[in-house]
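Repro case for the chain-ordering regression, as requested:
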Amino acid sequence: MNLLVFTKRVPATQEEELRIVDEGRAVDLSKMPFKLNDWDNYAVEEAVRIAEKTGGAVTAISLGDSEADEVLRRAIAMGAKDGFLIEADRVLHDPSARAELIRTFLTREAVAYDAIFTGVQSEDDQFAAVGGILAAKLGLPYASMVIAIDSLEGGQVTCRRELEGGGQERIRVALPCVLSLQSGINEPRYVSIMGVRKASKVERRRFRAADYGDLGEGMIEVSEWAYPPKKGGATMLSGELEASCKELLAILKEKGVYQ
Amino acid sequence: MALQSQNRLLTCIQCGKCTGSCPEAGRTPFNIRMLVRRRQFEYAIEESLPWYCTSCGACTLRCPRDVKPSEVIIDVRSALVEEGQIPVSIQKALENTAVQKNPWGRSRAKRGAWLDLTDLAIPHVSETASRRLLFTCCIQAYDPRCMVIPANVARILHRGGIEFGILGEEEVCCGNEVRRIGESGLFEELQEENRAAFEEYGVKEIITLSPHCMNALKKEYGDLGIGVRHYTEVVADLIGAGRLTLGGDYEKAVIYHDPCFLGKQNNVFEAPRTILGAVKGLRLLEFSRSREVSLCCEGGGGRMFYETEGSSQRNSELRVLEAIEKGAEVIATACPFCVMTLEDPATERGQVVKELSEILIEVL
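-- result from build under test --
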């Protein structure tokens, strides 16, 4: 069972105040800390668990700059057998262009796989599209928002997809296929610093993105970055406890939070 | 297991003084004597057990055989850390520290945000003649409840004529809790980064705000060649030398809680008492368990980030109840972790918890 997992190195923006520079053309990432895309963390964990159970192997692949090697090391520390870095010297936002580049890479390098995992989306671009577009280009079946993989054998995968309202649907997908995995599918293991250091000894193969596609080619182009409009602050309730509670309850009902 | 710790482990005679001193014993499933025994025989240890330890150090201090049970706990935790099988909340604290250099994952760039709480112009340590560094500490840099502490201490030191500077966002977590959680790789990285900054700026002296930071910098960073003191030691000296006079009145009954990392682990018992004793009108009370046998608040050893199972009464609650029983109006302490863990049960019972600098700033 060979599993490919796509891993993206993204800026850790949760606590940061982002600055738009270059007259709206870019976000200043120079002082940002970076990390593995959260969804991809779940995907790697899931792939490693399956490999541990079925005796397979996981290969982590990252399309990014040379620093992206960091996320491959993390994936290897979690249990991936090896990593491929498709090194690009410029950022490629367009998911269609990313998928095309990956398709060319997988085909030309004759990478063997039974299934390809991606995360549902990346924390930076959030298109949630690379997996689906890649599947279409490869002519493979695709399922998104996978919240549980029940079995992966006999040429098919049985899994459950997350639906709205907390519902799930169980589906069977023929292998090979592409799945995008939803956060919460598992509880990823902790990766220690020593573990990552040990992973540095495992070879990560480097390829040049320019060999597999034109990095300037894309159907979507970023035209402008802008800050979201500032909304009003919080509403403070004051007065007697009893009255405030009634007021709070009324607000919750009005907002549909409490029925 | 390293030969040294293996040898130490085998010298254990199962006297039970460790469990007898342990703040978790009896109320929780955690039994350090039994855990050491199981390690001697290399039996498996139930996964949730090692996380109860608060790193108070009482077991190690009282052991007649130099077994260092606190280090045994760290070894057990290290193995779990390397396997990746640790509680989610502790994972998060470690991951946050790796990315943002503080366990709360708050932006590294905002580590100096507490400066907004003071009108003092505090220089970078490289701009000081004395190269005296005030090491801020993560919880005091980021937690709104604690950010007032560095602002207070800065003013107090300034009043006492002590020149100092800070590292701002170049400071990273001291790693005291990280090492106790068993993530030695991360601890090494944090240590390296702080040491590099100390070296680059020629730091000659360090004053810490948290006893945890003092412990790590003084005892676990190797030979820094830099004197490390907790701010209470500095302030007590200033008061003793007549360089800091406290003019105001503080007519309250104040009970002092010895933090484990300041008190029993680093023998700083007198300095906070000297400070409180110098405050006019302040009536100083003592807990029945004070100084070396002070009751651990259960904030250390990773417990700040981890909720244990069980419904037994927390030590912090017991402390608050005793404070009320003894007629205290204020519980004073000199550690931000103690402040945080004591304050919840205190607030529920109408008791007040003050970090020492919060009392000092009122009488300066």
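Ordering looks correct now. The mean pLDDT of chain A is 93.
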